[in-house]
UniProtKB/TrEMBL annotation, chain A:
Name of the gene: hyfB
GO cellular component terms given for this protein: plasma membrane
Regions that span the bilayer: 6-30, 37-59, 84-105, 168-190, 210-230, 276-299, 306-328, 334-354, 388-408, 428-456, 477-501, 534-555, 642-660
GO-annotated molecular function: oxidoreductase activity
NCBIfam families per the UniProt record, alphabetical: PRK06521.1
Name recorded for this polypeptide: Hydrogenase 4 subunit B
Automatic annotation (TrEMBL), chain B:
Chief location: membrane
A Pfam family of this chain: NADHdh
Keyword Acetylation: no
Name of this protein: Formate hydrogenlyase
Cellular component terms per the entry's GO annotation: plasma membrane
Keyword field contains Manganese: no
InterPro entries: ComplexI_Subunit1, NADH_UbQ_OxRdtase_su1/FPO
Organism of provenance: Acidithiobacillus ferrianus
Amino acid sequence: MISCLPLDLAIGALLLWLGLGLSGFLLGGWPTLARRLIFPLSSVVALLLTIAGFTALTATPDNLLLRGPLPALPWSFQTDPLSGYFLILLGSLAFAVSLFSTGYFQSLPGLRLRRLLLQYHGFLLGMGLVLLANNVFTFLVAWEIMALTSYFLVVTEHEEADNRRAGFLYLLIAHLGALAILLGFVVLAGAAMAQGGPFSALLHASLSPFWASTAFLLTFFGFGAKAGLLPLHLWLPEAHPAAPAPVSALMSGAMLQMAFYGLLRVDFLCLDALAPWWGPLVLVAGLATALFGVLFAAIQTDMKRLLAYSSIENMGLILVAFGLALIFRTHGLNALAALALAAALYHALNHAFFKGLLFLGSGSVLHGTGSVAMDRLGGLIRQMPQTAFFMLLGTLAIAGLPPLNGFVSEWLLLQAFLLSPALPQSTLSAVLPLAASGVVLAVALAAYAMVKFYGITFLGQPRGARHAHEAGRWERAAMLLLSIACVFLGLFPDLLLRLLYPVLEEMLGQGLTAQPGWWWLTPISAQRASYSPVLFFLGMAATLGLSFFMIWRFFGRPLRQVAIWACGFPVRTPAMQDSPLGFAQPLLRIFAPLYPTERVEDADSRWRLRVGDPVYRGLYQPLNRIAFWLSAQVLRLQRGRITLYLLYSFLTLLILLAIWR
Amino acid sequence: MTAILMEVAQVLLVAFLAPLFAGLLRALRAILQNRRPAGCWQNYRDLYRLFHKESLQAEGTSWLFRFAPYGIFAAFCLAAGIIPILATGLPLAPAADVIALVGLFALARVFQVLAAMDTGTPFATLGAHREMLIAGLAEPALLATLFTASLLSQSTSLSVIVAHLEQLRFALHPSMVFAATAFFMVLLAENARIPVDNPATHLELTMIHEAMLLEYSGRHLALMEWGAQIKLVLYVAIGIALFLPWGIAPAGQLTALPLTLTALLLKFAAAALALASVETLLAKLRLFRAPEFMATAFLLGVIGLLSFFMLGA
């Protein structure tokens, strides 16, 4: 009975979410009641799911088979440490986001709120089902629920043409990816095996290297489309600004990680006939994605668009770690693969927390000021001090600064990179540290982008948005929880790594070496590398307190407020500060070939610089043209004469017969 | 017990002798440029004067503006306890390895940049994004050099690296020569020295580091200046630990201390001379030439890494 607890609990939680969504839909006539009742309950359910995740880490893997509508395709669910870890991620993020939503959707009209409640919980349900799915059929259905509900959430504010366009782009790429995943599964499962069998039946599927690689490429493409892999990232910066803030937080924090989960489940666990080039491929793709994401995050002028590009960067980093794990595993170095995988999984959870926090915060900024356009914001630290403080923690965390959580995963990743001399192949081991430098560049530029994000929005002088008000109680509570999570994961990394042991055991049959104590982080050996966030933090606090006390004691005099020195100029306007694009000007200049810029004249006869996405122009527009051209060619077949169509059918039959024979 | 005492002694020594090193550098530079130096102790006089002056807070700035000087100063003091300068194996040393040390410097920098953006003046924000740019480009080069050293000694802990390199006894490693050159270039860039930035500049448009301090005065400015001096000493100390570690004894060996101190004195004097001559011989680069400078440093670091793999040393 105890052993099947996590699965029952998880399925129960998902059913409760479904019930909450439906009852929210019915309660839509009383919007305040629905919002105040459903969202907090949803948080409680999220907590249940988190508990289910924790128990799944240690319980024995468990599964459940339900007869479905089609006899050959039963519903199949399971929990194991891997899905348990991602259930924790989903549950804890959903907990905070639902709390936030209680306060956030205040001004939403009743009709829209009831639809949103249904779609929101459908989205959570879809993500939960993805994690519990144990066969191809269930997985794909769950994947589709997740994609469709999130599409509807993206177009919540569908009056604006931009939002509809963003939603369509998202739907298109999501389905392109889903199609690739489906094809990958077809290759993987083969004609011989029924699609209803569990994932473990796919394991050790005896595939020839060619078909294994085909399946790998297809699924990598498909999950990459969801994860925002380089040429497929285009929907992210469109969909995130369009969606309401809590939805963006969930999509960026949790849904992108579902893609990573899929990669782990299918490409790492099921496909063990590893070709040596898979790992390098994933690593290079991840690194390109990370660098691209961060370079474009730095030049954005919209808060949520900036965060979307930053999500692309973070997914890139996770893929780099994943690729490194693949490389190590191919060469039989499972202990090292465990370290790289731990870095990837750690970063996935970190990203859920800090990106969730930042998206929620930008939602509060939108409510407080009516805008997320950074060239209208500024100085919010005075009007929204608490939000500004939480956002500061999120910014420091995502910029990879110690002693917060973003640094821990970066540190683990770099340590894994430094172990590359253990690889038997000398070229690979010599090139890997260069990739590590690329990772460092991405992280350093991420600091650039995030400092810009925080500095332009919360510091300096207001740039014209209306007077802001502080976020509501529910919103602040949610942000407080997420920032506590960021600090906690930063200070006590060993506690989380302990949670990761069963996951790593399952994936590689090997955990990390034991730690000397909970305040140390020594993944390999104390001699090799050590980092103690607690000691670090205490040392910092002690020196800070001491220097503050001494200086106050000996030289303490009250501060005098004076006007800012404007270099002798009589006038100082907010426009003299850096604009959001101006802050990124050095990057625009150094990496000029990357950025397609155009100067447009606005209504006030001022030149404005506009920077697009090169992938859109370089890849999507040509593809678009080719598609239109092909359609035009196909159109020639359509003549509107029934005799001609009969002729087509006849010819088709003839050809088929010829082939069949 | 001796280890803890040495730890405290090291932090105090670095903190209180850092102005002397910066003053020595200034004096040497003046002599090389045919000027009459103000003496090695000028920085102490400056700090004394600033500490006794009134501090002003620019209108409309937040708590970040007041917090940043203390935060930055504390970060550098903590770093002074981690880097092996007097001895290896100090109690605080395992708290952070080289990568965490770079993260600590980045933390200090981000606070400095945020404090500058808090004032919202044109020059401060100009300095802010330039600082982030230089740092962003310098960090990969820095990590490439640190990787070379840590691959050689199979550790990222500075203490272990020092202990390992000391055993090697003056062997010339090609990879370390490249890494040392790259590190020196990064040191110049990170500490706002010529040719990337000019610490003595008074022209706002070319400022990077100084532009961010424009609104600070009194004790806050003193802390910022002092912090920058400590940072320079720390970078030199990291360079010594990586490339000239001979003479640093394990903690607790009091008998080795005189030798260590003598060696340290010589090394720092040599570093001051090298820095002063570089700053005299080179002109400041245009801002947009700085990325090329960083790229050169990065390439040297990469060559160092590659030669480690090809030559195994």
